[in-house]
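cache lookup: miss for this entity combination. No prior model stored, computing from scratch. Input as submitted by user K.M.:
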Amino acid sequence: MQQEVRVRFAPSPTGGLHIGGVRTVLYNYLFAKKHNGKFILRIEDTDQSRYVAGAEEYIYETLSWCGLVPDESPKHGGNYGPYRQSERKELYRKYAEQLISAGQAYYAFDTPEDLEKMKLRVKTDENTNPQYDHSVRMEMKNSLSLPASEVDQLLSASTPYVIRIKMPENENITLHDMIRGEVHFHSHIADDKVLLKADGMPTYHLAVVVDDYLMKITHAFRGEEWLPSAPVHILLWRYLFGEDAMPEWAHFPLILGPSGKLSKRDGAKYGFPVFAMSWNDKSKGETTEGFRERGFLPEALINLLALLGWNDGTEKEIFTLEELIDSFSIEKVHKGGAKFDFDKAKWFNHEWIKKLSADDLAKKVKTVISGKGVAVKDEKQLYKIISLVKDRCTVLPDFWEQSFFFFREPDQYDTESIKAKWGEDKKRFFENFIKELGAIPEWGSAFIESAFKNLAAVCNIKPGELQLPFRIMLVGGKFGPPVFDIADVLGKKETIERITKALLKFDQ
RNA sequence: GCCGCGUUCGUCUAAGGGUUAGGACACCACCCUUUCACGGUGGUGAUACGGGUUCGAAUCCCGUACGCGGUACCA
């Protein structure tokens, strides 16, 4: 019996979730579901200074909107809680102390000023970014450099301290990554990372290892930005729980903006959303737009994100979540970063709007329409409208541009477009057409069309020449779906009224 | 600076030693449509560079260049 697959997404609740994060969630989710495993959400809120109210709620809402609901989380519960690191605070210290006993970590009493001084002292052109590592640690104030008696004294005097890992000086560390294969590091390049902060909270490095162990995570996936600190995590695993217990790793490629790693600033700068849902930063009073608010469907967002850095090896591009679960494999995730292309994103949304039924779309379209102050009275008519116009809608707000004329009569007419060819004969045609329409036994686009064409033949006018005026009478301009379909949806009474009204206007 | 990762049309990607280097987005043209779209057909357009290995390299190896990431008591 194989071990149950358990994966986790571990965001820090510091603001909106951007699409890189959503994609990480997605790949985690797909992997878990593919292997009948569990998808866990863990909140990494160990940095109290960066706490942002509402950010955690936002994450749940985003996940729920996307349809990527965790099996375990602070909100959904589970057997491995608490799932919020701040609530696990007391549990980390013992592991840090264990490392100290084993000589794999040490207390460090350096103040921020001490660290600053060290950096200034060591900094050269060749070493522009000095680290707290083997080369300087014996010159600093820590339990390695100080005599034991002094360390005891400092501790009993409650001097603030951190616990740092003692990185070995000369060791090769190999990471096996499911996407990249073997990645090699030298231990001497990493610094003595802080494991436990002065406030007693763990840093990411300690917490991720301890929690992945305690929560029985089998596969640890995260963004490529974590690759450089992987050796620290591997060492921690080796020291604390043994490498045999370590999950399998995979580092996903980054999603790039027009210039480097996609950031929320790119959104404002280039005019596309970067967050899944809009995020309001109350401290700065600025809102970052989300895909949801821009009128994207969650199905499309998921689909486009899945294909940004992965594909199933075929030419298939439109996938439902189910299909993604079915065909997903980590090995086919790319190594290289992918630049986000908003045009392609819109194409995916368009495809999804076309793919979904009027029924699927109705609720969202209704929201768009009512957002314009128009109440949708006739459900059946709405379905008809959606079917009629969805092929020409790329994002949800387009439904208004494409169908507003069904809800209100034209307030102006594009008479310019027909002026040149308008005349008495055509006017007469429409006057007769009104009578014909009144006599139509069954209202429907095919009947309207044949009445229209028959009458045109009688009047000896090409039907094509009459269609544009008819369209403008009904909607006001050169837009909309096929004109007989418009008349159909409008209904007999409304159609006749609009022709009548327009005829008067055309004369002026 | 140092370390790591990466590099196929403008963008997302297929091809894991033998293909006229395929598809999609975008763009252009034509067809359909007397609105605009949808749709259809076709077109422009890529293996970063230099060395190897091989009968044969986009594919394997080495260098160079470029890009990205990391280098916090942030995650």
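stored under new cache key. The first helix of chain A runs from residue 19 to 34.
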